[in-house]
Amino acid sequence: MVQAGLGADYAQQIITTEINDFLTRAQGRPVTPVNLVVRIAFNPNVDTAWFTSVMGILNSVTMLAIILAGAAVVREREHGTMDHLLVMPLTPFEIAMSKIWANVLVITIAAGLSLSLVVRGLLGIPIAGSIPLFLLGTAVYLFFATAIGIFLGTVARSMPQLGILYLLVFLPMNMLSGSNTPLESMPAWLATLAQASPSTHFVSFAQAILYRGADFAVVWRQFVIVALVGGVFLGLALLRFRKVGTAVM
After folding, report:
1. Per-residue confidence (pLDDT) for residue 32, from 0 to 100
2. Angstrom distance (rounded) from CA 225 to CA 223
3. Which one-letter DSSP state was computed for residue 44?
4. Average of pLDDT values for 206-230?
5. Which of the two residues, 238 and 3, has the higher pLDDT score?
6. How far apart are CA 218 and CA 110, in angstroms?
7. How many alpha carbons fall within 13 Å on the CB side of residue 146?
């Protein structure tokens, strides 16, 4: 589908150029001595692998964070170990943060290895910015994504239910994040609505760091937005934990 779209764009550019040249000669107007040439800064050959490889990592980060965190809660509820945790001298915040910290650590390391060994090493794709800064932003985003996973885990009562809820949450976030379709190609109202999703800011600052070499002074606002939304969902997950604990007692 991507190749077909690129081919259609190339064909349209060629036809448009030829028509403009023909009309210019037919009307007797002098040919302009200046030709406009579009040059791609990061990906001069427009190689789709340079884009899809990085976006694939971003999508995998979101997918793994939501599924792993949600599955951890659901499986503990199915096995009865969640009831044991809730009657122990542990607060819901401590239980949730233990799951968030474990998943954030594992997925951040996996994303760093994928970016360094596969994208940069195996595929030979140049990275313009700082990988540690990208991993810092990934850890902040994972705080949000794992909080969503824990919240869905407190709502779902089985793994099939979690899978359905995951699809309802992940697909809109993924399609509107800008990793598949640029925000500029969306209707203005939809692009504005997409700004409420932290996944949109995640894709935005990841592209700014890895493609254009942005530093922390450029992306810190997006870091803060993602962290604030993550805190909101963590609060909702903790409220659900308290309801579950009340039902158990």
Report:
1. 59
2. 6
3. T
4. 88
5. 238
6. 25
7. 25
Q: Identify the pLDDT of residue 25.
A: 65
Helix (H, G, I), strand (E, B) or coil at 196: coil
Q: Which two tokens stand for residue 54?
A: 């990085």
pLDDT tens for each residue of 109-121: 999 999 989 888 8
Residue 97 burial (CB count, 10 A): 18
Residue 40, sorted as left (phi over 0), alpha (psi -120 to 50) or beta, turns out to be beta
Q: Which residues contact 78 (CB under 8 A, 6 or more apart)?
A: 158, 159
pLDDT of residue 247: 45
Give, for 1, the enclosing helix (H) or strand (E). none
Q: DSSP characters for 217-249?
A: HHHHHHHHHHHHHHHHHHHHHHHHHHHHHHHH-
pTM: 0.77
Q: What is the rounded distance in angstroms from the CA atom of residue 190 to the CA atom of residue 186?
A: 6
Give the gyration radius of the chain's Cα atoms. 23
- Extended beta strands in 160-199, E state: none
pLDDT above 90 (res 108): yes
Whole-number Å distance between alpha carbons of 149 and 62 = 10
Q: What whole-number distance in Å separates Cα of residue 134 and Cα of residue 222?
A: 12
The token pair at 213 is 């070499």
CA angle, residues 180, 59, 223, in degrees to nearest 5: 100
37-59 pLDDT, tens per residue? 777 767 777 777 788 888 889 88
Q: Residue 52 burial by CB count (10 A; 0-12/13-18/19+): exposed, middle or buried?
A: middle
Token readout for 59 is: 């999508």
CA distances from 131 to 48, 211, 238 (A): 21, 11, 32
